[in-house]
Amino acid sequence: MTGPVREPAGLDVSRLGVELAGTPVVRELSCAVAPGGWLALIGPNGAGKSSALRAMAGLARHTGGVRVGGTDLGRLRGRERARLVAYVPQAPVLPPEMTVREYVLLGRTPHLGHLAQPGARDREAAARALDALGLGAFAARRLSALSGGERQRVALGRALAQEPRLLLLDEPTSALDLGHQQQVLDLIDGLRAGQRLTVVATLHDLTAAAQYADQLVLLDHGRVAAAGPPAEVVTERLVSRVYGARVRVAPDTAGRPVVTPVRGR
Ligand SMILES: Nc1ncnc2c1ncn2[C@@H]1O[C@H](COP(=O)(O)OP(=O)(O)OP(=O)(O)O)[C@@H](O)[C@H]1O
To answer: Which residues cross the membrane (predicted)?
Structure first.
């Protein structure tokens, strides 16, 4: 997918904290992602990954700072923030009567003037996103008539049409078959490399996280249990301690860890 290359922007998160119903669910999370970098947030159910991501998107009350390209996100209004950051939730709520094309075009909203209608450039950005995700054939389909995996790709399509500089993805491949998982992760990786889009994604698949991200943050009960390059974070010791899982971890030919679950007796 090619689009206009804009000034790249990195992410700086300092001492992020989120409290829900009086309980801290993210504590003292600090991380930095260079422009064009990919950070994966990993950790067991309830570790605080989605909460941290929502806070980075400005959608959850939090303490600490989130800066994108040096700009404090807390100081930006919704539209300004949406030109910089796109967020795709784990289970997006899609308006059932809208078509795929109309929905993806909504990604252009932050770029339109007040009361302005989408123009040719906006339609091109939406068409690029649809094509890149193999959704061209679905463009006229209503959102209520899509499978779970198609819905997930449509939500990502809207975010790509937004042409953000930071892309926040909550479990972007959870509903996708193996081929579409690779297609989506490869696409995001291409945008990262080609346009220096900065990516933060929560991922349950540790092998995929290690294959695609250049750094991982492992959360456990809201705290950072480990952070760094994949080979340092995805280890048998850490995975068994934090997830309570039996696994073998072996490097692939590129040295990235591959996790194999091992059946108990
Ligand atoms: N609205 C809420 N009120 C109170 N606690 C909440 C609320 N939403 C989530 N939590 C709790 O916050 C903690 C972190 O949840 P979060 O969804 O961030 O975890 P996660 O790592 O993304 O989990 P999962 O892998 O299951 O999606 C969990 O203990 C969860 O039960």
So the answer is: none
Superfamily (CATH H level) for 11-93+164-261: P-loop containing nucleotide triphosphate hydrolases (3.40.50.300)
Atom 26 (ligand 1) nearest CA: 45
Residue 110 CB less than 6 A away from ligand 1: no
170 lines ligand 1 (CB under 6 A): no
Distance 220 CA to ligand 1 centre (A): 12
Pair 82, 167: CB distance under 8 Å = no
CA of 51 to the centre of ligand 1 (A): 7
Extended beta strands in 21-102, E state: 23-33, 38-42, 63-68, 71-72, 85-88
253 to 38, 185, 223, 256: CA distances (angstroms): 20, 19, 32, 7
Q: Which of 125, 107, 96, 158 is nearest to 2 (CA)?
A: 125
Domain range summary for the chain, segments of one domain joined by +: 11-93+164-261
3-state DSSP assignment of residue 161: helix
Look at ligand 1, atom 9, and give the residue with the nearest C-alpha: 20
Atom of ligand 1 nearest to the CA of 171: 27
- Encode pLDDT of 58-73 as tens digits: 999 999 999 999 889 8
* Of residues 137, 128, 265, 132, the one with CA closest to residue 187: 132
Q: 136: which residues sit within 8 A by CB, 6+ positions away?
A: 127, 130
Whether this model's ipTM surpasses 0.90 comes out as: yes
Q: What is the pLDDT of residues 179-225, one digit of tens each?
A: 989 998 998 998 889 889 999 999 999 999 999 999 999 999 999 99
CA 27/CA 58 separation, integer angstroms: 16
